């Protein structure tokens, strides 16, 4: 678990690649420059950590592509102390980006192996999300709602109603919607009943799985 000058150089380069693709939020770019992404991957993939690519993290899951993480985070507009719910903890990389922006993060993972290893990893790295939860993100986290922002990091066949209902007025839900391919979608809660919806480009995610119990 080493972070070297070489890693830092590669991260700076990665942040430049992501900026060249259209990300302008300096805090998001700073997170990419700072967070040691190679430590979130199996060491056998270390050489690939600073390419702008998604990679397998075990249990058929992937760590999202840095550009995708940056794009979603930028759309979320995270202010300091914002209360954010993340669905799909995975490797924890997106969580670390949110923590870098000083958000209070609640993160849910449904895959038990990943949940366990990533929770331990957070401890080892001194990353401090408010809660790391094993469960079904489809339902959100009603006991901690409402949230300033909710970010879904798996492809949702449809938008879970529970997530919309757990937003503050003015709160933002960033969710990739679709089956084979997903359209990045932003919902902003305008009032109790009204949501503004905006669609962005297409992306590819592993599926958001609903527990049928
Ligand atoms: N944010 C992660 C991306 C991981 S991929 C990262 O930066 O590495 C998406 C993750 O969503 C997977 O770990 C998958 O197990 C999880 N997932 C899928 N359906 C889910 C659900 N209903 N609730 C919570 N997590 C879910």
Give helix % range: 25-40%
User: What would you say the CATH architecture is?
Assistant: 3-Layer(aba) Sandwich
Q: What hetero molecules are bound to the protein chains?
A: S-adenosyl-L-homocysteine
CATH homologous superfamily grouping? Vaccinia Virus protein VP39
Query: Between the first and last Cα atoms, what is the distance in angstroms?
Result: 39 Å
Overall average residue pLDDT = 95
Q: What global shape is seen? A: globular
CATH class: Alpha Beta
- Kindly identify the CATH topology: Rossmann fold
Supply the helix-strand structural class: alpha/beta
Major beta sheet summary:
7 strands, mixed
Count the helices. How many? 6
Please tally the β strands and state the result.
9
Textual characterization of the structure:
By secondary structure, the chain is an alpha/beta fold. It has helices at 5-20, 26-34, 66-76, 93-100, 112-125, 161-165; strands at 55-58, 61-63, 83-87, 104-109, 131-134, 147-152, 167-177, 182-189, 195-203. It contains six helices and nine strands; from the N terminus they run H-H-E-E-H-E-H-E-H-E-E-H-E-E-E. Helix 1 (5-20) runs antiparallel to helix 2. The model has no long low-confidence stretch (mean pLDDT 95). S-adenosyl-L-homocysteine (SAH) is lined by residues 61-64, 87-88, 90-91, 93-94, 108-111, 114, 136-138, 153-154, 206, 208-210.
Keywords:
single chain, 213 residues, alpha/beta, Rossmann fold, seven-stranded mixed sheet, two-stranded antiparallel sheet, 6 helices, binds S-adenosyl-L-homocysteine
Overview in brief:
This protein is α/β, with parallel strands linked by helices. Helix content is 30%, strand content 26%.
């Amino acid at each position: 678990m080493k972070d070297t000058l070489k890693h830092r150089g590669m991260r700076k380069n990665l942040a430049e690649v992501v900026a060249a693709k259209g990300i302008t939020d300096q805090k998001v770019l700073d997170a990419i420059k700072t967070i040691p992404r190679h430590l979130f991957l199996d060491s056998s993939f270390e050489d690939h950590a600073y390419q702008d690519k998604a990679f397998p993290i075990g249990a058929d899951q992937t760590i999202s592509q840095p550009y995708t993480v940056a794009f979603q985070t930028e759309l979320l507009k995270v202010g300091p102390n914002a209360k954010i719910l993340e669905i799909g903890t995975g490797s924890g990389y997106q969580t670390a980006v949110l923590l870098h922006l000083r958000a209070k993060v609640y993160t849910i993972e449904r895959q038990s192996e990943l949940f366990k290893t990533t929770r331990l990893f957070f401890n080892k790295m001194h990353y401090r999300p408010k809660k790391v939860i094993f469960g079904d993100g489809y339902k959100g986290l009603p006991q901690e709602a409402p949230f300033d922002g909710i970010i879904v990091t798996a492809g949702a066949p449809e938008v879970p109603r529970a997530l919309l209902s757990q937003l503050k007025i003015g709160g933002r839900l960033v969710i990739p919607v679709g089956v084979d391919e997903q359209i990045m979608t932003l919902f902003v809660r305008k009032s109790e009943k009204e949501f503004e919806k905006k669609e962005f480009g297409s992306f590819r995610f592993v599926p958001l799985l609903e527990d049928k119990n």
